[in-house]
Amino acid sequence: MSFEVDGFFSRDLELFQRAVRTTAPTKAWFDYALDLNRIGFDLLRNATTARSENTAFAIHGLFVRVHQSFQSALLLAERGLVGDARAVLRSGVEGTIAIYALHPDATFIDRLIEAHHYNQRKAARVLLDDPAYLAAYKAGDVAAMKAVVSSVDAMEKTKGAKFRDINWADVALKCCADLYQLMYRSLSSDGTHTTLNTLDRYVLADAKG
Prior knowledge:
Elements: H1 3-6, H2 12-22, H3 26-46, H4 54-77, H5 82-102, H6 108-128, H7 131-134, H8 139-159, H9 168-175, H10 177-192, H11 196-199
Helix pairs in contact: 2-3, 3-4, 4-5, 5-9, 5-10, 6-8, 9-10
């Protein structure tokens, strides 16, 4: 089961993983990261949140998600999947931005709920408005999608305003600009999005570039 045959499923990766965990310079970074991981579990172990406290409950749930993304990124990184680790970290950073937004502003939970309904209706409309997609669904599924659209339309009518999605750049620039500028943008440009920076990891350039 060599890497040339099985790629990242190869047993060779066990040796690579052990080297990353036990030799410089990566050992010090992983020791530090694993300490942070344990601190995260300590915080979760001692945290209690009433379900009736919507904002605190959302923050608690988001922290669980961010902590899991952190662990996922470490698992990917120690196997050499650095680009994918950075993509997962970006997801974690977005969750952290949400925590920053919720902490001083309890009403931000309403924006999360509104965005949830907005995207549910958007997904339903994509299918309902395309005959090629629609033909693949049963009558019951189509009825359920139409019910989602009607339900969200009714919510908007009751509120007297259109629902909107969340622009995370705007949210971050308001409450945690450094997190957005130094991490979210960087992780987007060479982790999540398809860019030349992303491709650099998979290309060996000669002296002429």
